[in-house]
Design a protein that fits this description.
It contains seven helices and seven strands. With 267 residues, the chain is an alpha+beta fold. A hairpin with a 5-residue loop joins strand 6 and strand 7. The protein is globular and about 85 Å long. The protein binds adenosine-5'-diphosphate. This is Two-component sensor histidine kinase. It comes from Inconstantimicrobium mannanitabidum. Keywords: Kinase, Transferase.
């Protein structure tokens, strides 16, 4: 059967639109799949601690005569799961809001050195209790950014450094301005991160050792939030080996991009 020029045109244009539609759907499908996986992982993570709390509390309710102090072994794990759940929900909320771009990032002139000085004391105290040396090496590191979020970033990195070190280890936090950049580094002499996992640790819910993370109250979301904060400041974050052992997180935030905005704000 012979096809007319018009019919050929129609068939070709249907084919081209089908091909283009298929192509343009790919990123949407990919992002939908990721979103679905994220929600599934999130609800799984939420269910486990909730089940523990529920069963422990039910146990308490079944025996109203006993004194609470005798039930310490039931209450203590329930409480620590509730605390983990609170952190998890807070982290999930931050990430969900960051996905939908509804979080406003404040823009002020801030010195990362002062932020570290303001929050380091409790870490030095915990370090002392756990026989870990926590110390700083700080130079002024002024950027244009969100003080609360930069504080949150430093807390995530310091909490991890405390979690993944043992007695006898050290944790060092330093700030520096170099080549139009601010460098913030948090290094420790702890257990380290396997080479193949250095990039993966920034993925949501990625943990190297599930049981250890659970035992120390981790959620697997801290570094995803850290990466989001750094990206919002036009910076980068990477995990490196710390010689001879441990981990070094290096955050770089450009001063140039920041000071451009400072110039603008002056008018
Ligand atoms: P969490 O610490 O709550 O598990 P994070 O997203 O903060 O979640 O970290 C993800 C994973 O990266 C951790 O489970 C751990 O395996 C690894 N990690 C993070 N910081 C360190 C560190 N300082 N030393 C060794 N491993 C680390």
């Amino acid at each position: 059967m012979l096809l007319t020029g018009g019919a050929i045109m129609v068939i070709v244009s249907i084919g081209v639109s089908w091909f283009l539609a298929g192509k343009s759907m790919e990123p949407i499908m990919e992002s939908w799949k990721k979103q679905k996986q994220f929600v599934e992982d999130a609800s799984h993570e939420l269910r486990t601690p909730l089940t523990t709390v529920k069963s422990r509390l039910e146990l308490l309710l079944r025996d109203p005569e006993s004194k609470i102090i005798d039930k310490y072994d039931d209450i203590e794990p329930a409480l620590s799961e509730v605390n983990r759940l609170n952190r998890l929900v807070a982290d999930l909320l931050t990430l969900a809001r960051s996905d939908s771009n509804v979080i406003e990032i404040e823009e002020n002139t801030i010195d990362i050195k002062s932020i570290v000085e303001n929050i380091i004391e409790p870490y030095a105290e915990i370090g002392e209790m756990q026989e870990k040396k926590v110390y700083t090496e700080l130079s002024p590191a002024i950027i244009w950014g969100d003080e609360g979020r930069i504080k949150q970033l430093i807390i995530i990195l310091l909490d991890n450094a405390i979690k993944y070190t043992q007695a006898g280890d050290y944790i060092k936090i330093s700030t520096l301005e170099v080549d139009n950049k601010v460098l913030l580094s948090v290094e420790d002499s702890g257990i380290g991160i396997k080479q193949e996992n250095k990039a993966k640790v920034f993925e949501r819910f990625f943990v190297e050792d599930k049981s250890r993370t659970k035992a120390n109250g981790g959620t697997g979301l801290g570094l995803s939030i850290a990466q989001w904060i750094v990206t919002k400041h036009n910076g980068t974050i990477e995990a490196k080996d710390n010689m001879p052992k441990g981990t070094k997180f290096i955050v770089t935030i450009p001063i140039k991009a920041s000071s451009k905005r400072i110039d603008k704000s002056a008018y």
